[in-house]
C-alpha cells in the first residue's frame, strides 16, 4: 500500500518537473531556440498545427530562426500565427522562408524575465509540496484505517519527504540554469 502511494507520488512529481522543464525551454533568453515556436499553432486547413510540423525550423545563427515550410503557400499563415502569438518577434519573409531575428534583451527585460522565472519556479515548488501533502495524508489515512502499521507509515512519510526534497532540488537547479542563461550577455 505505502509503496504504491510512493510510486504514484514520485511519478506525479517527475511528470510535473518534466513539464516545468519543457515550459522553461520555451522561455526566450535572447538566444534563438526552436522551442520558442512550440506554442504557435497555424490554421492548416481548419486544424491548428504546430509550426514544426509544417516545415523545417533551423538556427543558422545564435539569434536567428529560419522556418522553411514544405508548402510555400503556408508562409502568410505561419507569419500571421507568429504575429498573433506571444513570441514577441516580427517575422520577415522573402517568399521561400520566414526569418525570425531574436532581439538582444535589455537589462530591464532580463530582470523581468528572471522575476517571472522565479515566480514559475515557486508555483512548481507549491505543486510538488501539494503532491507530497496528498501522499502523506493518504499514508496516514491507511494507518488510521488499520491497513498499515505505524512504523511502516512513518517510513513511508519519511520516504515521501525524501522524494519531495529530490524534486525540489531539481526545480532549483532548472531555475538557476535558466536564470544564468537569461542573464548572459
- How would you classify the helix and strand content by structural class? alpha+beta
Compute the number of strand runs: 6
Strand content bin: 15-25%
Strand/helix succession: HEEEEHEEHH
The dominant shape is elongated
Distance linking N and C termini: 51 Å
Major beta-sheet overview: 4 strands, antiparallel
Helix content: 55-70%
Give the spatial strand order of the biggest sheet.
3-4-6-5
Radius of gyration: 22 Å
What's the mean pLDDT score? Answer: 88
Which spans have pLDDT < 50 for at least 5 consecutive residues?
none
Structure explained in plain terms:
With 185 residues, the chain is α+β, with helices and mostly antiparallel strands. 57% of the residues lie in helices and 15% in strands. It has a four-stranded antiparallel β-sheet, covered by helices on one side. The chain has a two-stranded antiparallel sheet with strand order 1-2. It starts with a helix and ends with a helix.
Summarize the structure.
With 185 residues, the protein is an alpha+beta fold. It has helices at residues 2-25, 75-84, 107-144, 150-183; strands at residues 41-44, 47-50, 55-61, 64-69, 91-93, 98-101.
What are the salient characteristics of this protein?
185 residues; alpha+beta; 4 helices; 57% helix
Helix/strand layout:
Elements: H1 2-25, E1 41-44, E2 47-50, E3 55-61, E4 64-69, H2 75-84, E5 91-93, E6 98-101, H3 107-144, H4 150-183
Antiparallel strand pairs: 1-2, 3-4, 4-6, 5-6
Helix pairs in contact: 1-3, 1-4, 3-4
